[in-house]
Amino acid sequence: MQYFKVTVNGKVYEVSVEEVVQGNAGATAAPSASPIAPTPSAPTPAPAAAPASPAMGAGEKPLPAPLGGTILQINVQPGEKVKKGQVLLTLEALKMENEIVAPEDATIGQIFVKPKDAVNTGDPLLSLRS
């Protein structure tokens, strides 16, 4: 006789199977399936810690991503002076290109992303100095 564990709809059963001898083909064994306690699964790993916010210099403030997406293009460099409304970078979200513009006249501090980076809503894209 052989024993197997079979899972049906999430419930584990222990089943015994008896070999049928050719001369005894008409005889069948009574089913003996009984539920058994589920085998404990491997423990799930703890979620990874959220990445730390990038360090910014004094007087710098972050420009957060207005929505999640992928960075397509960066149009500025650190230290560059920008005017209010100037396109700083392009973010693709939901198959649409969104231009991220300067909210005020400022100087670019640090750039925290690069093309093809995936960002979430609120992630800092770059820092601005007034």
Automatic annotation (TrEMBL):
It comes from Capillibacterium thermochitinicola. Keywords: Biotin. The keyword Calcium does not apply. InterPro entries: Biotin_Carboxyl_Carrier/Decarb, Biotin_lipoyl, Single_hybrid_motif. Residues 26-64 are annotated as: Disordered. This is Biotin/lipoyl-binding protein. The keyword Phosphoprotein does not apply. Signal peptide: none annotated. PROSITE patterns: BIOTINYL_LIPOYL. It holds the Pfam family Biotin_lipoyl. Residues 37-48 have a biased composition (Pro residues). The lineage of its organism: Bacteria, Bacillati, Bacillota, Capillibacterium. It comes from the Bacteria. Residues 53-129 form the Lipoyl-binding domain. Residues 26-36, 49-59 have a biased composition (Low complexity).
